[in-house]
TrEMBL record, chain A:
One of its GO terms (molecular function) is ligase activity. Keywords: Acetylation, ATP-binding, Ligase, Nucleotide-binding. Residues 504-582 form the AMP-binding enzyme C-terminal domain. It holds the Pfam family AMP-binding_C. This is acetate--CoA ligase. PROSITE patterns: AMP_BINDING. It comes from the Bacteria. Residues 595-617 are annotated as: Disordered. Residues 65-454 form the AMP-dependent synthetase/ligase domain. Its EC number is 6.2.1.1. InterPro entries: AMP-bd_C (IPR025110), AMP-bd_C_sf (IPR045851), AMP-binding_CS (IPR020845), AMP-dep_synth/lig_dom (IPR000873), ANL_N_sf (IPR042099).
Automatic annotation (TrEMBL), chain B:
It comes from Arthrobacter liuii. Residues 4-80 form the Carrier domain. It comes from the Bacteria. It holds the Pfam family PP-binding. This is Carrier domain-containing protein. InterPro entries: ACP-like_sf, PP-bd_ACP.
Amino acid sequence: MTTGVEGSTRWPAITKDVAAFPVQPNLLDYGAARRDFSWDQARQELAGLPGGRGLNIAYEAVDRHVAEGHGGKEALRFVKADGGTRSLSYVDLAGQTSRFAAVLKNLGVGRGERVFSLLGRSPELYVAVLGTFRNGSVFCPLFSAFGPEPVRQRLHLGAGRVLVTTKALYRKKVAPVRDSLPELRYVLLVDAGGNPEPGTLDLAELLAQAPQQGHAPPGHDIADTQPEDMALLHFTSGTTGAPKGAIHVHDAVAAHYATGRFALDLHPDDVYWCTADPGWVTGTSYGIIAPLVHGVTAIVDEEELDADRWYRILAQQHVTVWYTAPTALRMLMKAGAERAAGHDLSALRFIASVGEPLNPEAVVWGQDVLGLPVHDNWWQTETGGIMIANYPAMDIRPGSMGRPLPGIEAALVARDADGKPVVKDGQAVLVTEPDAMGELALRPGWPSMFRGYLNEEERYRRCFAGGWYLTGDLAKRDGDGYFWFVGRGDDVIKSSGHLIGPFEVESCLMEHPAVAEAGVIGVPDPVAGEVVKAFVELKPGHQPTEDLQLEIIGFARKRLGAAVAPRLLDFTSTLPKTRSGKILRRLLKSRELGLPEGDTSTLESPAGPAVALQDRP
Amino acid sequence: MNDQDARQAVGAAIGKVAPDVEPEDLEGGARLRQDLELDSLDFLRLVQVIAETTGVDIPEADYPAVATVDGLVTYVAGHG
């Protein structure tokens, strides 16, 4: 895969002068931190529910700070479209999330039942997440740019009982499929304005009727969830089949806290900005939970990426720690270094990035333009939190994802010719020599590890082999223990940091009346890492015209949304297939990129594709 | 370029980048990101298509001025 960054010698290491840092990093000595760390000890940093009733993320993130006398501190600061801000303090959050939990309770929504959101980054979203935890229910965020089909599929698979959304999103993406979602009992509109759509409820009205918390001690009304109770459901895509709902439990908060401390270097006085949308796991784990558990002030931009706006936010809000993504950084690079000029970024002291491998140019660009190098880190939906990272006090090797967090054991598992992990006598065979490739694997047992895929035990089991969790990413490790991403070990596409399952896209394309068959791959893109490209075989009687090309892309965008639908589409007369009829996406990709095709002995139709139209007219 | 040509060019460019957008949704006040749901990659491509078809380059500094259909039409008409 081309987004992979190889060659550890081309870019000089970026060294650090820790003594000159304005704030002493939490992790000073990597070796010592790893040696002295244990998850049991990390759990001791949490408060736990008062009276030893259990563990609930909402208490750790909100009420704990109120109980400790910091209720007046600014928890969330929302930057509105016009650049103005509105804030919620920790005590505000306690009150509002308590009322939201009361609304759920009044509706009869119980422990373990799923509450979904389809919302922009508004205060209502943050209140809904934490209010759901308070009620002991399970939160599942959806990305508001999803089309109706991904929304329907996830609500269905997750057996969503409640959906919190806006009038416009409901009309556009949920109303048309509502009939097929019998489990979805309540749709709560945040902007009903006293006039909810048929089949929905006015959230503001329900909140107004809910009881106030009054003078009761903080957290008294929080459900007494236990560490292994389900808290979050995050959907992610695989190579085949429907999206999988990764289950996370309240115990995960121990990892959110510890990783926020080491990999994001959060200190109590920080103003922290995570640019990820809570529709994806980063925006929940590190856009909501980690900063609030650390009691910092978190910035939320209600708008989309815009270079000038982002520099203004960094400067005007005095952001100290910034967690963003390669696609965003590359867009800022594209906009030009001069845009950063004139903005006072002196408050900024640490920048991290996640979503896909960060190219060395972006790491160094950070140092040149923002005055700080960008620290890449690695994790995925299933891991729930950062697993491998570059730390403030550790030298950066540009292009490397860094070294495993304290408490995390990472290794490379050998793969056989079919890409299967090599297991001998029940133990995975590990690749131990420097700079050799294997599948990145983690030793199970950290608190934010997923506890299952909802209703899919078999798929969960297949993620483990010989005592390791297999991540699906191929990587190398250099002689000093730095990990380097090489590529995905499967056909999953990574675009703008989001995983896209090719099967999901192919299934949608095949619903178009002109499409006989479709194969979908990721192709390199300078900004997004990869973008989705479809190869389509037409049914007899349909001509490969530009109009049809646009029609099919439009068809897919309507159903899947812009984030998931193909951006490029070629017609072909011969999709490469195995004799059993399975589309060989890897071969499609080799051909597209002009790479060697490898072993084609199992191929059914080895002729190359007849491309009738340019993908970018 | 007159307003009508600019509107046609903008409509065609949006149709190319986001063929899911229905012609009736192309109201003047429609915001490209929020109402027409173009994401940031779509937007970059739209800027590219506009440059190819009309010769009008939109520098990043002017992006706020082209956030709506009308804004984009006025910009293309004024610079083309």
